[in-house]
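Example pasted here:
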Amino acid sequence: MNISVLIRGISFVMWMLLFGAVALVVIRASRGKPMRSGTLVIIVFAVLAILVSTVSAGLVFIQPNERGVVITAVAPGYRAAALQPGINWIIPFVESVVTYPISRQTYTMSIAPSEGRVQGDDSITARTADGQEIYVDASVIYQIDPNKVIQVHIQWQNRYEELVRAQARGIIRDMVSKYGVEEVYSTKRDELVKRIYETLQVKLEDNGLMLVDFVLRNITFSPEYSASVEQKQIAEQQAQQAKLIVEQKKQEAEQARQTAQGRADAAVIEAKGRADARIIEADAEAKALELIAKVIRDNPSLLNYQYITKLSPTIQTLLLPSNAPFILPSAVFPNSGN
């Protein structure tokens, strides 16, 4: 609970009671019925009201997220140390307190009309090293250094946001001018943000502020450059598509070549198999004929035997000696039952 506010309330009540007592004494006196102790009552209420008001003027409550700068009539015009959170005592009616927030604050500069402190387009117009004009949206997250509140009050008072805005815009323009347009939005963006942060941090610290973070929110290009970028992207996409088509055709050709090679290899293997089989078959036939020829040479009558065995069973033949030039059929007699 803020005790200083409570005491101010009590002070207000005491002054109301004082005015009421004075009014009552005056009214009673005008009617010829003066109060015996009216003057004493007025004096008591007046003393209490002045006392409570004095105490109220001397008590200052500082919130945890604030620091207080004491302005005094004594030279140099301010206390050397800022008031810390809690109940603090100052010289009533001689000193006063100006409070400053030490919590984090955000200052946004955006092209969107509804964002940021400045209504309308508040983006930073900057020019890159290669002459392209860009528009930067950025946010600066900062806070007052609790140990430098008095410095901020002396140098800026409640106008420190003007410092943040001016420094941020100037540093962003200066850093962007060191990079090409493609580096700003792609390859060197992180480096750009880091350099802006480091430079802005030093500038704010020199003025009693602490930089918490710098956010490069968006980069917008001029309509002409945006159109050229879009055309370039379209061309790159078309080139990539053509490259993919060529690669696909190469793969299809390679696949067809491998298929044809496989078929040719299969045909060769098949032909070789048939040739090998024919060779084996011919070799077997030759060996068989050679064996048959040998058997016939050793057994000349074997041919006659083979011939007889091939005759029909109903034919009776007479086997003559091997030196007989003919094979004569035997006499065929009717079946007499003997």
Remarks:
- The mean pLDDT is 83.
- The chain is about 55% helix and 20% strand.
